[in-house]
Amino acid sequence: MKRIVQALTVGMFLLALFGFSVAFFVLPDQSFSEQENRSLRMSPKLTLDGLISGEYAEAVNDYFADQFPLRDALVGCKGVAEVLAGRGENNGILLGADGQLARRLFSIRCADGETVEDTDAFDVKHLKSSMEGLSRLSEHLDVPLTVMLTGRNIDVAASAFDYPTNPSNALLDTIRAEKRGQYELLDTVPMYRERFERGEYVYYKTDHHWTSLGAYLAYVEIMRSFGMENETKNEDFFAKTVVSEDFYGSLWSAGGMKFVPPDRVEIWYGADDGDYTVTADGKQLEGFYTLSHLEKKDQYSVFLDGTHDVVTVTKKSGEERPVLLIPKDSFANSLAPFLARHFDLVLVNLSSKNDFTNVSDLAKSYGADRVLIVYTIENVITADRLCRLK
Q: pLDDT per residue over 197-226, tens digit each?
């Protein structure tokens, strides 16, 4: 009987292995994972240089990992297993109190151009180079520069995790210490930490972005730094509407913790929302919000229709207003509707394949009266855009 059970076990294992192998070669490759909101690795091209350097082998590894059949289901099973084993994290995503998630492991950029995978450290030389880029830009600009480097979940929601804050504090302290040049650096992480610890919903639990409340608080800080606090719209100016209660963000997807409950998405409508023309890459949008994205996985794209290279916001009346240029990442998408009450906006995507790092030239070409950089600290340590600013 024991031999029969062993034979059945081996047979089932071989059958599953054969089935997965057949499925891998039969099923078409997927270029994009809506679940993870990222592009997937396609079949790499074999070259002699790639073979010699080892890059081809690494690319094949990534290809198999991304295209493996039932990948999402298996990631979910692994996430449950890791939590049951008491590890409290999966794939570098921490599980904290009340279902709060945060990424603790990053693929960081180094000053020599190399990348270090899965680390909670940062390259000091690269960070200094990024801060030097901000200083260099401030010297080339003819208009005021304000910089908001937005916190990561691991920075803001630190109290939700049984994880040391030393790496986060060291990163923030280095940023503060390396600030040079004639620009204002808005240090908002302490404020967001305090709000989070008071139970305020300032960052999503399953996603890396701030919520609409978090974006509003950033708007208040920016207006204060501009000396325009008296013009800031109060919260009661906006009608707050929950448009979704089933938002599963990027951290939820990467962590595979399918049991974590979803976030809610709230939109703050102003009575004058219809007074603005919003254009994304030359195409006019319906307004600040594209509600059709609520039917998809990436519901954060409801703000400004997601990722575009250049987005402009003007008053339909043609009223002349100061122009605010915002080199940014996706955090600025939910912030823009607040700032649009006071400025004509030009938002350029610093993460774009197009090079928008010559901000001083952009400021001149768009006739900007101010420049505001909104860029998450995660991108500061994992990308080289700030290093190349001028």
A: 999 999 999 999 999 999 999 999 999 999
Pairing mode, strands 370-376 and 323-328: parallel
Nearest to 304 by CA among 328, 326, 282, 337: 337
CA atoms within 13 A on the CB side of 47: 8
Beta strands (DSSP E) in the chain are 32-33, 38-39, 89-90, 93-95, 101-103, 106-109, 115-119, 145-150, 184-186, 238-247, 263-270, 276-280, 283-284, 310-315, 323-328, 344-349, 370-376
90: tokens are 């999966």
This prediction has a pTM of: 0.83
What are the residue boundaries of the structural domains of the chain, listed by start? 27-69, 101-388
Burial of residue 62 (CB within 10 Å: 0-12, 13-18, 19+) is middle
- Angle at alpha carbon of residue 181, lines to 176 and 183, rounded to 5°: 80
CA separation, residue 386 to residues 109, 135, 390 (Å) = 12, 10, 9
Among 10-19, 23-32, 149-158, 173-182, the least confident range: 10-19
Model confidence at 20: pLDDT above 50: no
Q: Are 383 and 349 in contact (CB under 8 A)?
A: no
Give CA torsion, residues 380, 385, 386, 390, to 10 deg: 180
Helices (H), strands (E): how many in the chain? 13, 17
Please list, residue by residue across 202-228, b when 16 or more beta carbons sit within 10 angstroms of its beta carbon and e when fewer do: bbbbbbbbbbbbbbbbbbbbbbebbee
In this predicted model, what pLDDT tens digit does every residue of 283-331 receive, in sequence order?
A: 999 999 999 999 999 999 999 999 999 999 999 998 999 999 999 999 9
Q: What letter would DSSP give residue 70?
A: T
- Check residue 45 and report its DSSP letter: P
Tell me 55's DSSP state: H
141-175 core/surface letters (b: 16 or more CB in 10 A; e: else): bebbbbbbbbbbbbbbbbebbebeeebbeebbeeb
